[in-house]
Amino acid sequence: MDINSDGLETKAGAGGDIASLFAEFSTAFEEFKTTNDQRLGELEKRGSADGLLEGKLDRLNAVLDGQKAAMDRAMVERARPVLDGKAVRGDGEYKEAFTGYVKRGEEKALSVGVGAEGGYVVPPETETEITRLMTAVSPIRAIAGLRQVSGSVYKRPISVSGPAVGWVGETAARPVTASQTLAELSYPTMELYAMPAATSAFLDDAAVDVGQWIAEEVNAAFAAQETTAFVSGDGVNKPKGFLSAPTIAEASWSWGNLGYVATGAAGALPASNASDVLIDLVYSLKAGYRQNASWVMNRKVQGTLRKLKDADGNYLWQPAATADGKARFMGFDLVEAEDMPNIGADATPIAFGDFRRGYLIVDRQGVSVLRDPFSSKPYVLFYTTKRVGGGIADYDAIKLLKFAAS
To answer: Is the torsion defined by CA of 41, 349, 259, 263 positive or negative?
Structure first.
């Protein structure tokens, strides 16, 4: 941890229990509000704020971000189960064979579930653990829709517009109505890989649970790559991110585009009543989506929104009510995704929507491991792969805030 000149503590790790971290976070937020109130008071009186207050506010923002990150890491650590002794009944022999393959290269049971390249499909509980941990640390995966498939491509028909209907009199003619419009969305799965390395001495240690070790080693690497792709991927050998979709002003929205609300100022929120455009963004989303909506933005943008108040002087950003909860903004959950862009001219750094319906992640069943003891002696490499796809599922379920004049 670091102690800055204000005596404020920035957590660098997940040390300490979660309750203590949450208490420190709450105390830091109260200090943040007091400092920001002073800054706003000076802005009203003099039209500018003391640079010392601005600096302290920035440091407090960093403290809040550090403490929240420490709590997130502590929650993930606490949630990790021990895989030893938890093999699914009937799969014990396969797990034992998998352990032998990883530790010693034995291939006596490759017929159980092996690809043609001579690798090994990890046991079911290890595959589940990889996906579960990725959900815990990948912000988009945690809120998006999920589908598991056995093929390389998932195709989904969707009704863009329903059949036309109308009212008629008892004896009036019944004209033919228009048919509904259908579209097909396609989600190819792409290969995501990681290559952890271990020494033979480490693998020979009887206490090493190889399934747990592989899950922990590849989890962070997979989650980071996935999140980048789900936000901004171009669809070439990776999923297509929601920010890669065409955008259009919400007033002219049509299927195949994400609608946006402009702030009215290039690279900035409006100088006065800044929260009004955020309210406009919330209500650009239809009620059916709004009830399950979340904000998605990065840490720096969140720091800017922490300073905003409503007309009654209440802060629009509120910390989580519990240590394992999410911060809320204007009454909706706020999800922090560092791959979202920063505030800038014509940028769209804030997304709001029902991501469970708006973005679909497709996982192909199976995680494969190929043992390589030759390429990087004295280390043994484990080429670990899974196939993942993703793309927009409903263009009407996600809206963007664009920092532009129009």
So the answer is: positive
The mean pLDDT of the chain is: 83
CB 190, CB 233: distance < 8 Å? no
* 46, two tokens: 């003099």
With helix as H, strand as E and coil as C, how does 217-279 read?
A: HHHHHHHHHHHHHHHHCECCCCCECHHHCCEEEHHHCCCCCEEEEECCCCCCCCCCCCHHHHH
Element (H, E) at 249: strand 247-249
Degrees to nearest 5, angle at CA 335 with 334 and 338? 130
- Read off the tokens for 17: 């229990």
Taking the CB of residue 228, how many other CB atoms lie within 10 A of it? 17
How far is C-alpha 137 from the geometric centre of its chain's CA atoms? 8
pLDDT at 402 over 80: yes
Over residues 68-80, mean pLDDT: 69
Cis peptide before 157 (omega within 30 of 0): no
Residue type, 115: G
pTM, to two decimals = 0.77
Alpha-carbon gap, residue 158 to 382, rounded angstroms: 40
Side chain identity at residue 312, one-letter code: D
pLDDT attached to residue 84: 42
**Is residue 6 within 8 Å of 56, Cβ to Cβ?**
yes
3-state helix, strand, coil in the chain (%, to 5): 35, 25, 40
What does the pLDDT look like over 253-294, one tens digit per residue?
Answer: 999 999 999 999 999 999 888 999 999 999 999 999 999 999
User: Mind listing the pLDDT tens digit for each residue in 184-227?
Assistant: 789 999 999 999 898 888 888 767 777 778 888 888 889 889 99
65 φ/ψ sector (left φ>0, alpha ψ -120 to 50, else beta): alpha
Q: How far apart are CA 306 and CA 219, in angstroms?
A: 31
